[in-house]
Amino acid sequence: MNWLQLLSTDTAVGRLLHWSRAVLDIVVLLVRNPSRESLFFARMILKLKPRYTMVTNGNLIALYRFVEQANRERIPGDLVQCGVWNGGSAALMGLAQVRSGTPGLDRRLWLFDSFEGLPPPGGQDGRREREQFFKGLTCGRVEAVRSAFRRVGVPFGLCEVVKGWFQDTFPATPVGPIALLHVDADWYDSVKLCLDTYYDRVAPGGFVVLDDYHYWEGCDRAVRDFLRERGLTGIRVTPTDRAGGCFRKPQTAPVQ
User: Fold this and answer.
1) How many beta carbons lie within 10 A of that of residue 6, not counting itself?
2) CA 13 to centroid of chain Cα atoms
3) CA angle 214, 254, 212 (to 5 degrees)
4) Which terminus, N or C, of the chain has the lesser number of Cβ atoms within 10 Å?
């Protein structure tokens, strides 16, 4: 068992460490911003960590706010998450949609995951990814996703769960316009495939959220390659936490 496996939420040690970090981050949030909103986020995060998500508190809060903003701005399209694990971040996105959605702007929440863990890293990933990978890493369960939604009071009927490897399920799934694309896919090939497949369906002004940006080398490289290949030189990825980032699709296409 390598150290990443020991620290994963599959072990008691890992669950304790993830929970402890979540609590520390919540204390910092409440001290820096003592408000009803902070208390709300604290309650929701404690309902979801560590069993249902390993996404950092800052990224969870950012996701919630991006969904709110998409609703305020009436950006058309669905919410798409690529990489679900046990559904905690997806449940928080669903909660934001339920609480801030507006009439005439119904959204589905598409959840893509193999539910077999991550595939092995590829040649474009870093040495750390390859050294720390083990079979079954971040292997989630559909039943846990359903439980996460129940924990925060969001109807599971809001979701379309698509089980299988991305390369198999993306071509066969009829996803339409996208208001927010959340990519939590870790490795280069998976992140690049998500962007290649779904960026064109993101509505102008829509959000592309990258959970692993500045955490895994392959994710950063995939984002850089995608932006370069598409000629999106004016886009800058804004950090959302100590790792993670977001950018918005331009309202107009770049001049080639």
Assistant:
1) 12
2) 24
3) 15
4) C
Model pTM?
0.91
Return the CATH number of 56-248, one of 3.40.50.2000, 3.40.228.10, 3.40.50.150, 3.40.50.1220. Answer: 3.40.50.150
E strand or H helix that includes residue 219: helix 217-229
Q: What is the per-residue pLDDT across 159-187, written as a single tens digit (0 to 9) for each?
A: 999 999 999 999 999 999 999 999 999 99
The answer to whether residues 112 and 84 touch, using CB atoms and an 8 Å cutoff, is yes
Q: Determine the residue type at 187.
A: W
Mean of pLDDT over the chain: 91
DSSP 113-161: E-SS-PPPP-TTS-HHHHHH--TTTT---HHHHHHHHHHTT--GGGEEE
Distance CA 49, CA 55 (A): 9
Give the C-alpha separation, 40 to 96, whole Å. 12
**Pairing assessment for the beta strands 245-248 and 238-239 based on DSSP bridges:** antiparallel
Q: What is the rounded CA–CA span in Å between residue 167 and residue 12?
A: 33
- Strand 245-248: give its sheet, edge to edge: 159-163, 109-113, 78-82, 178-183, 202-210, 245-248, 238-239
